[in-house]
């Protein structure tokens, strides 16, 4: 019925006019906010601070095909604010390759092709040969103690977890108790970054005058309850007498030794260590991939 006739009065006419104006404004808003694909993207702010908004697309001319939804992350997957974006991993392992440095007397690392694409085989495989203490590796108690735990029985909870990287004065020929001054109380894992790290950058050859842990420093670490000790040399100690008192002192107490680290790109501080040595059954050592995760 047309407005202004004998049916509806002026007030009803005004209401119809207002309704038309509102519908027109709504359609105008919808058209202007059309996104690609002729849809309308509605970005909804979260009512729950832990909820993440998800875009929902409204197709004109059809019913709402997708309801606005929120993904609520379970509590165990949440980490500290922003850490998903800022956390990163630093590989502190030596790349295993024939040219790498080895401790004197240890078997060299070799690799030879068994199947080769270049020779017409369908795939690549290689035969590798290496010592149990090649490159970055762990020393389990069995390394020096006949009844000590082998590599495959090392506690993974000790090998992985919060860790402190300590910078040792570049002029110190050996790590002394005084170098432990910044080690936080209760530290379980400590990695020493010494002058060795820079020398590895300059030349990838074994050098005998490497910085190592002194026995007094090892005893101080034991007194503090440290359970994993890592260093950027191929041996944690330098002992020309061949008695290896530092290894004995640490391994006798079940401390895991991690040797052959590459720490030149690692600022001192707090990290999470991820270290998984090869599961060598009854192994006296274990080449390992070691990674530091920033916290
Ligand atoms: Zn070793």
Layout: helices, strands, pairs:
Elements: H1 10-32, E1 39-42, E2 51-53, E3 56-59, E4 70-72, H2 83-86, E5 89-91, E6 110-115, E7 125-129, E8 137-139, H3 156-159, E9 161-167, E10 174-175, E11 189-193, H4 196-202, E12 212-213, H5 215-224, E13 228-231, H6 245-252, E14 256-259, E15 269-277, E16 286-294
Parallel strand pairs: 9-11, 10-12, 11-13, 13-14
Antiparallel strand pairs: 1-3, 2-4, 5-16, 6-7, 8-14, 8-16, 9-15, 15-16
The chain binds zinc ion.
What does this structure look like?
The radius of gyration is 32 Å and the shape is globular. It has 3 domains: 1-32, no CATH class; 42-76, no CATH class; 90-97 and 133-294, 3-Layer(bba) Sandwich (Glucose Oxidase, domain 1). With 295 residues, the chain is α/β, with parallel strands linked by helices. 19% of the residues lie in helices and 25% in strands. The protein has 6 helices and 16 strands. The protein has helices spanning 10-32, 83-86, 156-159, 196-202, 215-224, 245-252, and strands spanning 39-42, 51-53, 56-59, 70-72, 89-91, 110-115, 125-129, 137-139, 161-167, 174-175, 189-193, 212-213, 228-231, 256-259, 269-277, 286-294. Zinc ion is lined by residues 133, 137, 139, 259, 285. Zinc ion binds at residues 133, 137, 139, 259, 285.
């Amino acid at each position: 019925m047309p407005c202004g006739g004998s049916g509806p009065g002026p007030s009803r006419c005004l209401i119809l006019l207002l309704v038309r104006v509102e519908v027109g404004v709504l359609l105008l808003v919808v058209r202007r906010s059309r996104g690609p694909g002729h849809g309308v993207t509605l970005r909804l702010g979260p009512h729950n601070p832990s909820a993440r908004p998800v875009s929902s697309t409204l197709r004109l001319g059809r019913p709402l095909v997708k309801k606005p939804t929120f993904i609520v992350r379970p509590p165990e997957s949440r980490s500290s604010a922003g850490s998903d974006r800022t956390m990163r991993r630093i590989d502190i392992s030596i790349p295993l390759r024939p040219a790498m440095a080895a401790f004197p007397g240890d078997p060299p690392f070799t690799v030879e092709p068994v199947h080769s694409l270049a020779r017409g085989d369908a795939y690549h495989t290689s035969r590798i040969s290496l010592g149990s203490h090649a490159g970055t590796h762990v020393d389990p108690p069995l390394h020096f103690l006949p009844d000590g735990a082998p590599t495959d029985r090392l506690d993974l909870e000790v090998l992985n977890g919060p860790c402190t990287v300590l910078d040792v004065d570049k002029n110190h020929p050996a790590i002394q108790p005084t170098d432990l001054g910044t080690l936080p109380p209760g530290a379980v894992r400590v990695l020493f970054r010494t002058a060795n790290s820079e020398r590895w950058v300059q030349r990838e050859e074994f050098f005998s005058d490497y910085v190592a842990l002194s026995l007094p420093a090892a005893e101080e670490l034991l007194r503090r309850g440290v359970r994993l000790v890592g260093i950027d040399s191929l041996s944690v100690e330098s002992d020309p007498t061949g008695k290896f008192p530092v290894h004995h002192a640490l391994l006798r107490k079940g401390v895991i030794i991690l040797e052959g680290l590459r720490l030149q790109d690692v600022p001192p501080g707090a990290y999470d260590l991820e270290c998984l040595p090869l599961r060598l059954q009854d192994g006296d050592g274990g080449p390992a991939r070691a990674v530091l995760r920033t916290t």
